[in-house]
Amino acid sequence: MTQLTSVHATASQPLDGPSIAPRRVVRLLIGATVEEIERELVLQTLARCDGNRTHAARVLGVSVRTLRNKIRQYSADGAEVAAHH
């Protein structure tokens, strides 16, 4: 599995827009699978939303149910998931 590094590592950055040009982000992600990228995006968004699943789902553009199912799978696979608030 490819190890992804955090592109947006600090919680102080806004969630409403990227701070790095999309072309640069894509270059950083080459070599990772779409599944790995999605997982990292979901987990980092959840962490940036302080574990608030409703807010994270809204930011990601998915239903809370979809997010909950993804989190359940990631947890079963051993991922650390931000605490639910």
Could you describe the 3D structure shown?
The protein is mainly α and 85 residues long. The chain has four helices and no strands. It has helices at 22-29, 34-48, 53-60, 64-76. Helix 2 packs across helix 3 and helix 3 (53-60) crosses helix 4. It is globular, with a radius of gyration of 13 Å.
Would you spell out the secondary-structure blueprint of this structure?
Blueprint lengths: L21 H8 L4 H15 L4 H8 L3 H13 L9
Helix pairs in contact: 2-3, 3-4
Order of helices and strands: HHHH
Distance between the termini: 30 Å
| Secondary structure: number of strands | 0
Low-confidence stretches: 5-13
Quick description:
This protein has helices spanning about 20-30, 35-50, 55-60, 65-75. The protein has about 80 residues and is an all-alpha fold.
Features:
single chain, globular, 0% strand, 4 helices, 85 residues, 52% helix, mainly alpha
